[in-house]
Write a structure and sequence with these properties.
single chain, 100 residues, mainly alpha, Arc Repressor Mutant, subunit A, 2 domains, 5 helices
């Protein structure tokens, strides 16, 4: 991921995304660069228009927010049954006194 981040950083700074610049960014981050990974990344990005890829990623709907809301709703539902259970127990205790 750090190599991809380096490429995105270079792109956002309007710098050329090439092996030398990626190596400089990775080195500046305090990481020992791996030449094979850098060459593979540059080769993979040579045919990609980064601006278009970023726009497509921004336009994609994000489904992460919906599951995050579901657990909160689940917690509220858990509280209601506890209240109902307490009421049922109190009602049963009252009935027990009648027969008791």
């Amino acid at each position: 991921m750090k190599y991809m981040y380096a490429a995105l950083l270079l792109h956002s700074a309007a710098q050329k995304v090439d092996e030398e610049n990626i190596k400089k960014v990775i080195t500046a981050a305090g990481v020992k660069p791996e030449d094979s990974r850098i060459k593979a990344l540059v080769a993979a990005l040579s045919e990609v228009k980064i601006d278009e890829a970023l726009k497509a990623a921004k336009a994609a709907p994000v489904a992460v927010a919906a599951p995050a809301a579901a657990p909160a709703a689940g917690k509220k539902e858990e509280k209601k049954p506890e209240d109902e259970k307490k009421k049922e127990e109190e009602a049963l205790a009252g009935l027990g006194a009648l027969f008791g």
